[in-house]
Amino acid sequence: VFDFADEHRDAWLLLYGGGAAGTIASTAEHAEKAMAGLLEELLAAGAIAEGVAPAAAGETTPIAHAFTAATIAAVSWWLRHPEEPKELHALRLMNFAWKGFGAMLAGDLWLPED
Q1: Long-range pairs for 104-108 at CB < 8 Å and ≥24 separation?
Q2: Model confidence, pTM
Q3: Environment class of residue 84 by beta-carbon count within 10 Å: exposed (0-12), middle (13-18) or buried (19+)?
């Protein structure tokens, strides 16, 4: 995603820079839904491969949308602050995701105290 945004900076900022309207906003929404849909499939397949019941793997839908939003935000922030390499931002984002997803798959969940 970082490579795509790097190669198409103007398009990315037009879609996700916060001021999109009309057809452009519709295109951004469509792209975001497609990203989330792909991630939803990948997360569910990964969860099932780790032994999570298929019904429970359906819980990946809101997480896929949250991670898609986090990815868009991280890429957009990097484009406005390019002093650090995109690879570092991608590494941060992947650690944010995989460390958290790994803990969830292991059953290590945060729950509020009573």
Answers
A1: 105/46, 105/47, 105/50, 105/52
A2: 0.78
A3: exposed
